[in-house]
Amino acid sequence: MFGKDDLVDNLGRDLDRARGRRDALASEAATLTAQIAEIEARLLEEKNRRERDRALREIEAIKTRIKQAGSAFAPVVDGLCKAIEQAAAVVPEARELNSFLVSVATEIDSVIDPLLRELDQRADAVRVGHAALDLPSSANEGSIVPPIEPPKDTNDRLLRFPAWLSRDKETEKAEAAENPRSTAA
User: Fold this and answer.
1) DSSP string, 62-90
2) What is the pLDDT of residues 5-54, one digit of tens each?
3) How far is the CA of 32 from the CAs of 18, 22, 24, 172, in angstroms?
4) How far apart are alpha carbons 32 and 27 in whole angstroms?
5) 109 vs 73: CA distance, rounded Å
6) What residues contact 66, with CB distance under 8 A and at least 6 apart?
7) Its pTM surpasses 0.85
8) Which residues contact 154 (CB under 8 A, 6 or more apart)?
9) How far is it, in rounded angstroms, from Cα 16 to Cα 42?
10) Kind and range of the H or E element at 32?
């Protein structure tokens, strides 16, 4: 009889140990699950922070390119206007191109500041996490934007105007032939 009681006692102790191990493993699984959830949350937060930083760098790079291009544009227009003024002594119609260039420069100046302000507002929204921009990654992320410089020599770049802007005598004659009412006054 003693052997049977020992077997029952042994099985009872084995059962208690198994239950204890199960409870310890369940507790450890719960602890690990909580740690995994915490690590996943931190990982998501870090990914979001890096994406916001990338978007902010892209916005700043865009602003820098706009400012550089705008500041390079003004001296080019000024140089063209001066050259056109000289040409106007020979070809009076050149003044039309001069006024066109001035109006284009004025229009560009009038839209650059609001555009930069809008970019600043978008950057602020990204900073506080209210907006996530889906900007393409630049080819050289972290590279410095090369400055845009106006040509140093007039032969560096040849400016060509589109056909619709070019108003030579053949174009005017062709338009007059297509629309006879324009010549009749």
Assistant:
1) HHHHHHHHHHHHHHHHHHHHHHHHHHHTT
2) 788 899 999 999 999 999 999 999 999 999 999 999 999 999 999 999 99
3) 20, 15, 12, 81
4) 9
5) 10
6) 112, 115, 116, 119
7) no
8) none
9) 39
10) helix 2-88
